[in-house]
Write a structure and sequence with these properties.
The complex is a heterodimer of chains A (99) and B (130). Chain A has a single domain, classed as Histidine-containing Protein, Chain: A. Helices cover 32% and strands 26% of the residues of chain A. Chain A has helices spanning 26-38, 58-63, 81-93; strands at residues 12-19, 43-48, 51-54, 71-78. The longest helix of chain A is centred in the first third of the chain and has 13 residues, at 26-38. Chain B has helices spanning 11-24, 45-55, 69-80, 86-89, 97-109, 114-123, and strands at 3-8, 29-34, 61-65, 90-92. A 4-stranded parallel sheet of chain B has the order 2-1-3-4, with helices on both faces. In chain B, α1 packs across α5 (97-109) and α5 packs antiparallel against α6. Classes of the chains: A alpha+beta (99), B alpha/beta (130).
């Protein structure tokens, strides 16, 4: 959804839900936290089951304990919400050999 | 980019932590300072000082110690820095060694400043694994 009030017209909120093809390992958690740090004006949150994590915290993202086959909800609010959400989804869905 | 120095009694522990951190935080500047000058268990202010110099690109350096004399050696070094120049750019993190190093390096490689990198390391204390 897009916020449409004039006062908030620079802020978009984007929600994406993905089914993990693999466990949310340390390396993709690090990539997501780096991405969130690089796009600081945007707030990035992940939710898996009952747990939520600020994506800037690599340890909190790992602490979601999100396993292969489970759903992860990506919520991004900010000026680049759609782009950032796409990049987070790409990391979550990318195949990896280990890590 | 903020540099990270990993201070441990063991050169193997510091080097292994730096290797792990480099895998999770690609692009981070992480320098191990473990063991004594002659490779025994212990800490060396000379090795730590050299690691700080290697990690410093001008944006500051965060020291992450394991425990005990790693902390004391780091504090002794910090006390000798000029508070008007390098003393402003080097900070000591009160954080768990591995988790703090990972959190700090991810924050640093994402372009955050020294204060934010130190905060990321110290928040590691409160993050649950289970």
């Amino acid at each position: 959804m897009s916020a449409n009030s004039e006062a908030w017209n620079a802020i978009d909120v984007v929600v994406r839900v993905v089914v993990l093809p693999k466990h949310l390992h340390a390396r993709p958690a690090g990539q997501i936290a780096q991405l969130a740090a690089r796009h600081q004006p945007n707030a990035v949150e992940l939710a898996a089951g009952e747990r939520r994590a600020n994506a800037r915290s690599v340890l909190a993202v790992m602490g979601l304990g999100a396993v292969s086959g489970s759903e992860v909800r990506v919520e991004v609010a900010g000026p680049d919400a759609a782009t950032v959400a796409d990049e987070v989804v790409e990391i979550l869905l990318s195949p990896e050999i280990d890590g | 980019m903020v540099g990270i120095v990993l201070i441990s009694h063991s050169s193997g522990l510091a080097a292994g932590a730096a290797e792990l951190v480099g895998q999770i935080a690609a692009g981070a500047r992480v320098v191990p300072a473990g063991g004594t000058d002659d490779g025994r268990l212990g800490t060396s202010t000379e090795l730590i000082a050299a690691a700080i110099a290697a990690a410093d690109t001008g944006d500051g350096v965060l020291l992450v110690p394991d425990m005990g004399s790693s902390v004391l050696s780091a504090l002794a070094l910090l006390a000798d820095l000029d508070p008007e120049s390098s003393g402003k750019r080097v900070r000591l993190a009160d954080a768990p060694f591995v988790e703090g190093a990972v959190a700090a390096a991810v924050a640093a490689s994402g372009g955050l400043d020294l204060t934010a990198v130190a905060t990321a390391a110290e928040e590691a204390r409160d993050v649950r694994k289970l």
